[in-house]
Each structure stands twice: as structure tokens, then as C-alpha cells.
Amino acid sequence: MSRFFDNHNHCQFSFDGGRTTAEASARAAYKDGLCGMCFTDHYDPYTPPMKAAFEDMVPEVFDVPSQQAEIDRVNSVLKSEGIPFKVFKGIEIGLQENCRDAIKEVLDNNQFDHIIASVHYLDDTDPFWGGYYEGKTWKEAYGHYLETIYKEMTWLGKDFDIMGHYDYVTRYAPYPEASIMYKDFSDILDEMLRYLAEEGKALEINTKTYQVYKGRTPELDPNILLRYKELGGEIISLGSDSHDAGRAGYNFPRIAEFIKSLGFKYTAHFEARKLCQEPI
Fold first, then answer.
1. Residues 6+ apart with CB under 8 A from 215
2. Are 127 and 133 in contact (CB under 8 A)?
3. CB-based contact 148:156 (threshold 8 Å)
4. How is 89-157 classified by DSSP, letter by letter?
5. 161-213, pLDDT tens digit by residue?
6. CA–CA separation, 118 vs 149, rounded Å?
7. How far apart are CA 126 and CA 5, in angstroms?
8. Alpha helix (H) ranges present in 157-268?
9. Closest of 1, 7, 2, 4 to residue 242, by C-alpha
10. Are 93 and 160 in contact (CB under 8 A)?
């Protein structure tokens, strides 16, 4: 059994998670040696109209009580079979200034093991389908994305545990510059990392980002992690962003060795929003 928990996964309750179920993913993750996983299904209360040109518009929120009841059921089944694997209840909030009230409502009325604060849509555009990048240089596009995460996560304040995929914006970008590097965005990254360190929030390493997409492979810049550590940050969350059974824990051993080489001693997960650390 490995020491890894996968803190970022999607199942049948996410609008894009129909390729798997919570039970199928949990069984596959246990078989692959993980200790546990958290389903952080998507909660984006507003979807930009431009997305309708590419796919059917469906609500990108989920039925929280149904998801949590299913996770309870899966945990009960696994326990009855003597499988030492825990499934946690999470949510991935898609931060947008124009739906702050809806975000507050879902967080005020439900309890989660952890909350991921992410940005998927901004400026009424969708990076996945490319609209966000139009008319922007790579530096403008990446910098504005980081500024938006910072603005929205500081607004959210105590109501999140993990800053999700800060480099999501690079995955689908059309530029040769495939990575967010500390040297290019040191000012805004310092603000973000200082906030995470001072507030005891986790920095997510989302392993889905670091794979080939249309001939480009974003790089995880060690200088960002070193700066986080220098500012007092030590909470590293590993997430595969899986939408398929069998993909949880993608590349975790390699990433864990990488962060260990930078001086980090633990990876983290959360239970009832309480920090738990596992030695690397």
C-alpha cells in the first residue's frame, strides 16, 4: 500500500464525470495502491455562453446530498469487504466573481472533507475551448489568470483548503510558452504563495497538467515550490484530476520524489477539513 491520497477526482456527479462512478474509481485506486481518494465534483454555477458553440450546455453543479450519500455507501461496501480504503467528500468550486452568492450558499449549507478553489472560466470565456486566449499574448493570458485566482481565493478566505491547478491556463493554450515559470510572474506568484503559506492552505500539484497535449507538455517549475517553502508553506496536495477509473494517482511517485528533492517532507490530505500529513 502506498502512502498517497488523491485529493482531486471526479465521478458520475460531475457534468463531465460520466466515464466512471465513485465505486469503480475507488476500487481501481485501491487496486493501484492508493490509501484513499476524495471526489471533488465540479461546482461552476455560471457557464459562459461561448461554450454552447462547442457542446451541449448542461448545469455544471451537482447534487451534493446525492453525491455524499453515494460516498457513504461506497465506504460502507468497502469496509464490509475488509478493504482499508477511505473515500472522502469534496467539492471543486469554480470561482467567478459573478456567482459569489451561489458559491457561499453551497458552502454554507453543506459539509465537506475539503474544498478546492479553482478557476475554469473567466471574463465570460472558456480556456478549454480557446476563447480566453483570443487577443492576448501568452504573458497577458497567464498573468491575468493568476491574478483572477488570487482575487477570488482571497475573497473566499477561510472557506477553502486547497488552491487548485494554478497552471490550468497552460494546458490548452495556443502559445509555444507551455509553462508558468516563477521568473515570469514572480510578483503575483509571491502574493498567492504568501497567502497560502500564511493562511495554512495547500498548494495543489495537479498531475493532469504535466502531460502531452497537442504537442506541448507544461513543466512544473521547481522555483515556484521553493518560493512557497521559503515563505513558510509546507502543505502540498497531490491531485490527478481523474475522470476515469484507473487514472487516480497518475504520476504521484515521480512527483513525490521531485518535491522531496526540494526539501518537502510530506504530502497532505484533509478529513472534515482538518489537515493530515503523510511522510514522503
1. none
2. yes
3. no
4. EEEEEE--GGGHHHHHHHHHT---SEEEEE---BTTB-GGGTGGGTT--HHHHHHHHHHHHHHHHHHHG
5. 999 999 999 999 999 999 999 999 999 999 999 999 999 999 999 999 999 98
6. 7
7. 30
8. 168-171, 186-199, 222-230, 252-261
9. 7
10. yes
Q: Which of the four pLDDT bands, split at 50, 70 and 90, describes residue 19?
A: confident
| Cell 446530498 sits on residue | 65
**CB half-sphere exposure, 153, CA atoms < 13 A:** 29
**Pick from 64, 224, 62, 60: which is nearest to 128 by CA?**
60
What does the pLDDT read at residue 90?
Answer: 98
| Look-up of cell digits 476524495 | 38
The pLDDT of residue 50 is 79
Q: What is the average pLDDT across 236-259?
A: 96
pTM of the entire structure? 0.96
Q: How far is Cα 46 from Cα 269, in angstroms, rounded to an integer?
A: 28
Nine cell digits for residue 169:
491556463
Cell of 151: 482575487
